[in-house]
Design a protein that fits this description.
Strand content: 5-15%
Radius of gyration: 23 Å
Number of strands: 8
Distance between the termini: 10 Å
Strand order of the largest sheet: 4-5-6-7
Structural class: alpha+beta
Helix content: 55-70%
Number of helices: 20
Largest sheet: 4 strands, antiparallel
Shape: globular
Order of helices and strands: HHEHHHHEHEHHHHHHHHEEEEHHHHHE
C-alpha cells in the first residue's frame, strides 16, 4: 500500500513543485524536486513512530491458510509478474500512440522541456497575436496540466525527450494501482489469496492493460487517482480511520487537475462522505431539499449567475454551463446498444459487468439482513457512479461519444477500480476493529 499510494502521491507532489518552480521563475530541473521530496521522506521516516500507524493484520488467519492456497497465491503472483513484464516491454518498444496523446497530453511537455519553463498554451487568437514566440496553441488548451507535468518530470529525468522513458510513468501508474489495491484489500480483512485474486481480476481487464501499454492518455491516471481515493473513502466509512480520510481527501482534490470530469467525480466522493458523516435523517432531508430545488429550478425554466473570476453558471432545461467544465446541451440519446455492446459483448471488461448486477442484489440482501453499517454508504457511492455515467451518456452531448465508442469505455475505466473494490467488500466482511496497531 505504501508503494502504491507513495508513488502516486509523490508524482502528484512533484507536479506541484514544478508549478512552484515556474511561478518563482526557477528553470525546470530534475534535481530540485528530488531534494525536496527526499528531505520530506527523511522527515517522515524519522517521525514515523508518531503517525502512520495501521491496524495489525490477523496473523492467525494467515497461518491457517492451506498449502494449496499458498501455492495458488504464488502461481497468481507469477502470472501477474509475467503480465507486467509483457506490459513494460510494450511501453518500451511501442512509439507514442496517436490521437489525444499526440494532440494534447504529450505536446505540452515537449515545449516545456525545450524552454525549461511552463510556456503557456492558449486559444488561437492569443497564439496569433503573440509576438514573443513563447505562446503555443492546441485545440484542448484548457485541459488540466497534471498529466503533462508528469511526462515533463520523466523527460527531465532523462535529460531529453525519450518516449520509452516518458512512457514508463504509465507502467508505474498501473503498478501503483495494483499495489494500492492489494494493500487496501489486506487492510480491509481479505486473506492474501483473496486480495491477490481481486488484484488479478483488476490487472487482467483488457482496457486497463491497453491504457498501460499504449501510454500517453490521461484516463489511466484518473482511474488510479479516483480509484484509490474511493477505496480510502470506503475504509474511512467503515473504520473512521483519519489516515484513510486524509488519503481520500488528498487524492480526491487532485482529480480535477487530471481531467475536467474529475471535478464531478470528486463531488460524488463528497456526497458519499456526507452520507457517512451526517446522521441518516439529516442526509435524507438534505437529499429531499436538493431534489425539490432541482425540480423547482427546471420548472421555472432554469437559472443563471455570474461567478467572479470563473465565468457564467447556467442551468436550464436545454443547457448546463459550468465554469471550467464547459457547456452540456441536454438532449436524450438512445445509447443502450453501444453500452450493452461495450459492457457485455466486446472484449473490454471480460465478465465484470455480468457480475455487477449480481453483486448489487447480494449487497441489497446484506443491507437488509446483515450488520454492515458501511455497506449502505459504499453501495450509494457505486450507485452515484453508475447514475453519473447514465446521465452523461443518455442526457448530454456525450451520448455521441457512446455511439462512436470514442470515450464510452474510457469514462467507465475511471470507475472500475472503485467498483471492483466495492465488490470485494461485499464478499469479504471487514476486519474487526481493535486498538492494536503496527507502525509502518
Amino acid at each position: 500500500m505504501a508503494l502504491g499510494y507513495g508513488y502516486l502521491l509523490g508524482l502528484l507532489a512533484t507536479t506541484i513543485l514544478l508549478r512552484l518552480m515556474d511561478w518563482l521563475m526557477i528553470p525546470m530541473t530534475f534535481s530540485l524536486p528530488v531534494i525536496v521530496l527526499g528531505m520530506t521522506t527523511g522527515l517522515i521516516l524519522w517521525r514515523r513512530q508518531h503517525f502512520l500507524r495501521w491496524p495489525c493484520l490477523n496473523q492467525t488467519t494467515e497461518k491457517s491458510q492451506s498449502f494449496w492456497a499458498r501455492v495458488l497465491w504464488v502461481l497468481l503472483l507469477i502470472w501477474l509478474a509475467v503480465r507486467l513484464l509483457n506490459l513494460v516491454l510494450e511501453v518500451i518498444w511501442l512509439p507514442l500512440y496517436p490521437w489525444d496523446a499526440w494532440s494534447t497530453w504529450m505536446v505540452r511537455p515537449q515545449a516545456w522541456l525545450e524552454w525549461k519553463r511552463l510556456v503557456p498554451f492558449s486559444d488561437a487568437q492569443a497564439w496569433l497575436a503573440d509576438t514573443t514566440g513563447m505562446t503555443y496553441h492546441i485545440e484542448a488548451w484548457r485541459y488540466p496540466l497534471t498529466v503533462s507535468l508528469i511526462a515533463l518530470w520523466s523527460a527531465l529525468a532523462a535529460g531529453q525527450w525519450h518516449e520509452a522513458t516518458v512512457n514508463l510513468a504509465w507502467w508505474g501508474c498501473g503498478l501503483a494501482l495494483a499495489f494500492g489495491f492489494y494493500g487496501q484489500a489486506r487492510l480491509w480483512g481479505a486473506t492474501a489469496l483473496t486480495a491477490l485474486i481481486f488484484t488479478w481480476l483488476l490487472l487482467s481487464l483488457p482496457l486497463l492493460d491497453a491504457h498501460i501499454a499504449l501510454a500517453g492518455y490521461a484516463d489511466l491516471w484518473l482511474a488510479t487517482v479516483f480509484g484509490l481515493a474511493a477505496i480510502s473513502l470506503m475504509h474511512w466509512i467503515r473504520f473512521r480511520d483519519y489516515q484513510q480520510g486524509i488519503l481520500a481527501l488528498s487524492l480526491g482534490l487532485f482529480c480535477p487537475t487530471i481531467k475536467l470530469e474529475g471535478t464531478v467525480w470528486a463531488l460524488l466522493l463528497l456526497i458519499a462522505a456526507l452520507a457517512a458523516w451526517l446522521p441518516k435523517r439529516h442526509f435524507i432531508g438534505l437529499t429531499g431539499i436538493a431534489v425539490i430545488a432541482i425540480i423547482a429550478l427546471f420548472s421555472a425554466g432554469g437559472w443563471s449567475a455570474s461567478i467572479p473570476g470563473l465565468g457564467d453558471l447556467q442551468i436550464t432545461t436545454s443547457l448546463i454551463k459550468i465554469p471550467g467544465l464547459g457547456e452540456f446541451p441536454l438532449v436524450y440519446w438512445n445509447s443502450w446498444q453501444a453500452i450493452v455492446d461495450s459492457g457485455f459483448v466486446l472484449d473490454n471488461w471480460h465478465l465484470l459487468f455480468y457480475l455487477v448486477p449480481i453483486v448489487f442484489l447480494l449487497a441489497l440482501w446484506q443491507i437488509r439482513h446483515a450488520e454492515r453499517p458501511d455497506l449502505p454508504t459504499t453501495t450509494l457511492l457505486v450507485t452515484l457512479l453508475l447514475l453519473a455515467f447514465f446521465i452523461l451518456f443518455f442526457f448530454t452531448a456525450a451520448g455521441q461519444w457512446a455511439k462512436d465508442f470514442t470515450s464510452l469505455n474510457r469514462i467507465m475505466l475511471h470507475f472500475v477500480p472503485a467498483i471492483l473494490f466495492w465488490m470485494l467488500t461485499v464478499f469479504v466482511p471487514p476486519r474487526q476493529s481493535d486498538q492494536s496497531s503496527l507502525a509502518v
